[in-house]
Amino acid sequence: MRYKVALQRSEEGFSVSCPGLPGCWSQGTTEKEALENIRDAIREYLAAVDESLKSKEVREVEVTV
Fold it and tell me: pLDDT class for 42, splitting at 50, 70, 90?
């Protein structure tokens, strides 16, 4: 999967968020580190969503943009 992320330079390095996943963000001292960290944050975010849906009836839909 591919997600758009918003990268912003900060005093400490870089902050990065994933607008498509509210509350999913990370940071790093370099751009490379920030992007590696957001990959981990996205994986953890999606794992938490999967866990929260285990007891629910779930469907998937396909969207073309």
Answer: very high
CA distance 22 to 25: 8
Assign 3-class secondary structure to 20-35.
CCCCCEEEECCHHHHH
Q: What angle do CA 13, 2, 45 make, to 5 degrees?
A: 70
Answer whether residue 64 is part of any domain. no
Give the phi and the psi of residue 9 in degrees, each rounded to 5: -70, 140
Q: What domain count does the chain have? A: 1
In the chain, % of residues over pLDDT 90:
94
> What is the distance between the alpha carbons of residues 47 and 33, in angstroms, rounded to a whole number?
21
